[in-house]
Amino acid sequence: MKRILILCVLGLGLTSGGLFAKSHSSKHEKSDKKCDCKNPTWVTTFSASPNIAAQAQEVYPPVNLADQTVRMIVHVSIGGKQVRVRLSNEVGSDTLTIAKTRVARVDSGANIIPGTDREVTFSGHPEVTIKVGEVVLSDPISIKVPAESDLAISMYTDPTNIGDATMHSASLQTSYIGKSNGDFTQDVTGANYDPIIVPPLFGLWELGSFLYYVTAVEVLPKEQCSCSPANTVVILGDSIADGTSTEVSANHRLGNFLAQRLLNNKLPHAVATEALGGNRVTDPSDLGPGLLSRLNRDALSVTGRRHIIVMVGENDINNGISPQELINGYLQIITRLKVDPNVKVYGCTITPFIYSGFPQNRDIVNNWIRTSGAFDAVFDFDLLLRDPQNPNALAPQYVTTDPIQLHPNDLGHQTMANSIDLNLFRECCKKRRYYTTIHEIPSTAATAVGKAAVKKLSKKEAQRIYKEFTRIEP
To answer: What's the pTM?
Structure first.
């Protein structure tokens, strides 16, 4: 369902009678800071944090890919005119050689759109060898990528590979593997591919296909912007941030919904989610290192990072970490991220979990997040999603089929994204209030539009003002 979004813009005068006191330009009001829109820089339009293969064996067995083609499907946030692909052997067990890599726009399933297929090279060569613990970034590839579209990254692995594959275990996307050995990277149809089927984690959660080797896609945006040059919003988190329990291939994670809102409001920021299931601030879990251990890789090294959302702590609380130890971890995260003075760090309160054995610890930490002033801004997801009748539980409308009622459903992710103040991402214009529901629109503003249209203005002028002060946001 579409809803009306009305913007109250600074500088607009309303009389007590509800009429416009003065006209208002359709251009944004400028702040002292100037946007550089003519020289866009690379941003990270998609990312996935790799799991630790040795630790993940307790949950998923290691996979060796040799003489096989995999077609990985990734959903980008913003588009651009060129892309770069980052491949990883960070947690592999032996040297990895990828003989061929190609990128194309997805038609449906494993099918690609004819004419969009491009060769991917690394330092001018189609073949790339990656040592254990290392990553490679491709050469720029000229391909027009629309915002919120899917890319297929097809890789043919060398027959001599013997090591375990680096992967992200919860892509929430269906990807594909060749039905037999051989190179199918240039196939336009998906006839030679089968979906990669992964059993539900612990028999509970559908996580989509494994995402092999690909840890980021970067784009060079088009030369346009309004109130902010393009940069990257990074979401650091655990399985909730990763979208566990949302619909596979629907792109209904927090990051997806936030990217949609930014685009709809002409704020051309990429959104990159760097999340791992079971993640904690300090200690590693079965699926990956603690956030403090992966901060350099998953935050400070993300291309274009400017806004960083810290959405982790649930697993620390549920594993008995003391409130002070968790708070100290948050302070370390902030201190390290603030080495770059241009970076903004936003905290998220820890969402309710009905079966937590330490609800009082969650309350202590959440109160600190809200009141300490340590973060540049706070997103109170706890207050937003809690059941008014039981503050330690998710409200019924946000509960999934998840039997432990830990992970919010698709509506919960959309609700979290809709609650984020977009003014935080406006760098070159004065702030304005964004009304996210019809019920939040001040009666004076609605009356002003109505009376001005009826009593004072020509039909043409009334239509202009209506378009200026209303916007449909999906």
So the answer is: 0.83
